[in-house]
Structures are given as structure tokens and as C-alpha cells.
Amino acid sequence: MEKTMPIKIDPGSLKRRPAMRAADRIRVHGGEVPYLTFPLLEEQTWCRHAFSTRAGGISTGALSSMNLSFVREKNRSTVEANFRIFADALGFPLEHMVLSHQTHTTNIRVVTAADRGKGFLRERDYRDIDGLVTDCPDIVLVTFYGDCVPLLAVDPVHHVIGSAHSGWRGTLNNIGAELIRTMRETYGTNPADVRAAIGPSICPDCFEVGPEVAEAFLAERGTAFSEPILRRGNIKDGEQKYQLDLQEACRRNFLGAGLKEEHISLPDLCTCCNWDVLFSHRGSGGEHGLMAAFLWM
Prior knowledge:
CATH class: Alpha Beta
Distance between the termini: 26 Å
Structural class: alpha+beta
CATH topology: CNF1/YfiH-like putative cysteine hydrolases
CATH superfamily: CNF1/YfiH-like putative cysteine hydrolases
Strand content: 15-25%
Strand order of the largest sheet: 1-2-3-15-7-4
């Protein structure tokens, strides 16, 4: 196996946000290939999941070390090696992976057995896909992150899994509800049965946006939805800035889609606050790799 880089993760050194419930406290798995899991989803023993960190790979420089983005790495073989290292550590075959093609849409792809390997072993025949759902065993759904919000949803009744990437545009346009709608219409999922995890992502203290973003939320989603997730920040160059709580917005999107409050896990880890061990666009000033969420059964 390729030699891994020496980034290590000390769980005790992570900057954590207050967690109201044990289910909101993300679990850190150490070792040479560290990864994160969400207690609420771990209760569902019929499926598995993992969220990568910066540690355990062979990428160098600003991409050090577990970069999983083919777009950001010039050498494709390095990213392939990182995937191989991670898959070996978690125990799933590379040929079972299906990769998203993220462009901040709300498009969800229903993944079948015919899609195995797309995006990794063979070319994708789809584009502009920010979410994936399936009821097929032996398929690993893979989506990518570097501050945006990971959304993982599982239906324990019909054994359906879904994963989506929710940046501010996806959150504004409610990709969370679209993910649940696709699960419901395709597989008969009852939203009240779904367990969902909102993964490590940028916190409101770190996510400053301009008035155009705040105005977009107010115009599209209304004041009742938008005011609780927007906090007035500093005035810079004569322009009012806002702190945007994407994680709470995603929680509200899930609630609006019919999920029960106790079935939604919020993250206690901010990517930007922990950008030394989690890739962060804001924290790194734009020079970074990408982490990935893996969900399979």
C-alpha cells in the first residue's frame, strides 16, 4: 500500500460546537486512515457510512493528504490511490462506488446496479448531479465537500439510502426536500421514517455572506424561514454582511420535508474551525482538496 502522509487527528484537539444530544456528537475514528461517523446513522446496522478527513492519504501541499477530488488534483493516480487507501480501510470494493457530479444544483440521480463504478472506474453518463439515492445493495454513494453541507438520509423500512451536497444555493433551493421527495416517489419512503445526518460543514460564525445572498433567501424562502438563519454581521466597504447558518437551514429543510425532529442529527464540527484536519474553502483561502461522504449497504 502507498505510504500515507503524517497528518494525525487528535479527537481531543478538535474544536467542537455545543451538542444538545449524544446523537449530534460526531464520532471520530482514529488510526492511519481517520474517518467520521454519525451516531444516529450508526443505529441503522443494515447500512454503513463514513466521512473522510484530511488525514491518511498521499496528496501533498495544500491538498495534503486525503484529497478525493479529481478536479483539484493534477495527478489522477494520486487521487485513485487515496480512494484505494480509504476503501481498503473501510472494507468496500472500489468498483461499487458511484460518484456525484456536483454543480450546486438540486438534481438527484436514482442509482441502479448499472451505475457501479461510474465516476471512478468508468466515465459518468450524467452531469450536474448533487444528490444520489438507491435501494441497491453493494453500491457506495459518494459525494464531496469542503465547507458545503453533507446530507445523508436513510429509510429503515424500505432500505433506501440517499446522499446530497448542499451549498448555499442547494440549501436555498431545498435539495434536502428534493432528496426526500425522490426517495418517496421512487421507493415509497415515508419521510417520518427517515433518519438524517447533517455532516461537518461551515458554521455560521465562519460563514459570512453578502447582502445578495441574504436577499435571495428572504425573497425565495420568506422571513419565517430566513430570519432565524441570518445574523447581521460586520459592515465592510459600506456593505452589510451576514452570518448564514446553513446547518440550521438544512435542518429546517428536512423538517419541511416531513422528517421528525428527533430523526435529524446536527453536526458539532465546523470544517472552517478545524481546517487543519478537515478541508475548508474559507479556512484555507481557496487552496484545498475535498473530503467525501460514503454511504452504502
